[in-house]
Amino acid sequence: MLMRTDPFQELDRLTRQLMGPGTWSRPSPMPMDAYREGDEYVVALDLPGVSADAIDIDVERNMLTVKAERRPVAKADDVQMELSERPLGVFSRQIVLADTLDTEHIEADYDAGVLTLRIPIAERAKPRKIAVGGGSDRKEISG
Question: Which of 43, 56, 74, 141 is deepest in the core (most CB within 10 A)?
Answer without folding.
Answer: 43
